[in-house]
Amino acid sequence: MPVISVSMPEELIDQLDTVAERHGYTGRSEVVREGSRALLTEFEDDRLANQQLAGTVSVFSDFETQPIERQLTTLRHEYERSIASITHSHVGDSCLDVLVLETDRDELATVVGKLRAIDGVKTVEYSLVPLEGSDNCGCR
């Protein structure tokens, strides 16, 4: 199996080690492989393909990281047809931005990916509801 090098903060490495120990993984590489598989298949649910979706996306970020606000504004302008609103709150020592979108799966996946790539973002979670009368829900 090829070996790759990945840079990450010490805190994240500690969390990987804790998960590996608590859940019986052989090591952090196994945790990273499983997380990578989950991320790569996250938006592959064919039940959601070719449907308009309503979605909420929650973004937790560091309070001290100011460029996040500029990047969120840029993203909002780039996807203004899809992003209905963004609200900003302070929760503990973090910022919480909630985006409401109306779009298709592929564009939502792109927005979520861009949010996850912003430096200082801790987590991005989302919930989806199909708008075309379907009972299928892709909640994550």
UniProtKB/TrEMBL annotation:
Residues covered by the Transcription factor NikR nickel binding C-terminal domain: 54-128
Highest taxon above the source species: Archaea
A biological process term (GO) from this entry: regulation of DNA-templated transcription
One Gene Ontology molecular-function label: DNA binding
Cited SUPFAM superfamilies: ACT-like, Ribbon-helix-helix
Organism: Natrialba chahannaoensis JCM 10990
Annotated InterPro entries: Acetolactate_synth/TF_NikR_C, ACT-like_dom_sf, Arc_rbn_hlx_hlx, CopG/NikR_regulator, Ribbon_hlx_hlx, TF_NikR_Ni-bd_C
A Pfam family that the UniProt record links to this protein: NikR_C
Name of the protein this chain belongs to: CopG family transcriptional regulator
Alphabetized UniProt keyword annotations: DNA-binding, Transcription, Transcription regulation
